[in-house]
């Protein structure tokens, strides 16, 4: 027991000042952070890649989360000479995530992947739009025919028009950067 051995000891003399503890913690965290940075820098300079760090809070549980995504790159280009499926996948991913060519181009540059030209992106975007339009139209026609047959079976056809409730959502919202 320290008190018996050394008698009157003030606790203030044993524990450092709170600011000192805080500074020492920050210094240790900075040192460890820099060591990890150097290790990762070597890996990314050798094989290529990037890190995406993101934080979010679960408002219901009031828990904070930290996520880290590490991207490894390989030497690829997304240009006219590559497989058109790659171009379609990049454009589709960009559009469906609500992103833009510029955002995707920036991501690809971080990943050391040469991005397709903007004109190629726009051309591929038009092709995808036409394809989606054709497929969605075919699907709506197919299900419209099915619903019409249901209306016929229920004697709910007036002047050749099926009288049955049909809910259709064949579009997507207008985004601020001009895509429909």
Description of the structure:
- With about 180 residues, the protein is of the alpha+beta class.
- The protein is built from six helices and four strands, in the order H-H-H-E-E-H-H-H-E-E.
- Strands 1-2 form a two-stranded antiparallel sheet. Strands 3-4 form a two-stranded antiparallel ribbon.
- Strand 1 (about 50-60) and strand 2 (about 65-70) form a beta hairpin.
- Helix 4 (about 85-95) packs across helix 6 (about 120-155).
- It is elongated and about 105 Å long.
- The relative contact order is 0.06.
- The mean pLDDT is about 75.
Low-confidence segments, given as residue ranges, are: none
Strand adjacency order, main sheet: 1-2
* Average predicted local confidence, pLDDT: 76
E-strand count? 4
Task: State the end-to-end distance.
Answer: 76 Å
Alpha-beta content class: alpha+beta
Could you tell me the radius of gyration in angstroms?
A: 30 Å
Helix content: 40-55%
What is the quaternary state of this protein? single chain
Question: Helices and strands, in N-to-C order?
Answer: HHHEEHHHEE
From the spread of the alpha carbons, the general shape counts as elongated
* Strand portion: 5-15%
Biggest sheet: strands, sense, closure? 2 strands, antiparallel
- Number of distinct helices: 6
